[in-house]
Amino acid sequence: MVIMIMFGVKVGLVGGVVYYTIDEGVWKSSEHTTELYSKIYKNVAPYVKEVPVEVPELPKVEEISFLTKNYWNKGVIASFVFLSDLPNKTAELSKQGYEYVLRQLEQSKQKNTSTTKSQETSK
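RESULT FIELD:
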């Protein structure tokens, strides 16, 4: 029940914010949004002395384009390196798994024989 109330409050808040922004015209033309920003700034400016957080400069489109291409290419290269190494890695890991199972079986066999011998000597 409490979860339903919390969910209802959250949905109500989000709905209220969306309704308010639509009602104020945030989603209209950019000129209208600029006017709204000026109006809000004039109302808030007397109460705020200085903005405490510096906003970093946004990267340029060319930089974003270069980084996107660069990371995409690195991802493609890494994928093909993985695929080319897959047969060797699979064989290597299969061999390691096989050897591990053999060691475990040998240890189990040694434990069983030592347990059997100790039981025979105690009789």
